[in-house]
Every structure is written in C-alpha cells, then in structure tokens.
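User: Hey, my collaborator sent me this sequence without any context and asked if I could get a structure. I don't really work with proteins. Can you help?
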Amino acid sequence: MFFNIKLFNVLATKAYERVGSSYTLDETLKVFRVYFQAYENYMRAVHPNIRTSQIESIISKMPYLDDNGQPGGGAGDIDSDSYQVLIEAHFKTNYGKKCDYNINHFFAGEIRLLRLYENLY
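Assistant: No problem. I've predicted the 3D structure and written it out in structure-token form, which is a compact way to encode the shape of the chain:
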C-alpha cells in the first residue's frame, strides 16, 4: 500500500480517543484500511490526505447509516464487517465523471445505506 497507513493510524487513534465510537479502535482502523486499499486498487492512486476533523466525523458516523452519526437517529446500525462488501460495491458504482471516490463521499448522505440495500438485503 502506498498510502502512509502508519501515520494515518496515529492520527485516527488520536481522533478515536477524542470522539469515541461503538466500534473498537481495531474495527475502526480496519474500515479505514479496507477503504484506502480499495481506493488504490480501483483508482490506481493514493487516497488524498484527509483532515483530522474529517477523520473524527467519519469515526462518529461509521457505526450508523444515518448522516448525523447519532445512534438511533437514522436507518440503523451497521456491523463493521459489512464494510468490506459496501466498499467494494461503492467502487463498482458509477456516480458520474465528477466523483473522485474520496472516503468523505462514501460517508456522506445515503451512499452507504444505498449500497447496503443493494448488496446485503
């Protein structure tokens, strides 16, 4: 992997400690790792760096399918193991020429919910 995952893990661990999650730290880091690896495989490029505030936002949203990262506030919880399927489906979805497949796009709006309905139900 060309992405500096070791540095990212340090940043994500600090972010995780600040915002917390119903996922363990290992589960959280695994979702990020799977995403960044898929990005490299499909895009043939390294994922752009993301800000600490974005990492924190993603960590808080990760266990939930709604966009506000609040338990019970949306469509429901998602198991961390389901992300492998959702991420794979995400990169196989054509969002149009302007989509850069950034992880922030994946965690925005209903992207994950739609991939869940298409692939796990």
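In plain terms: The helical segments are 5-19, 25-43, 52-61, 83-92, 103-106, 111-120. You can pass these tokens on to your collaborator as they are.
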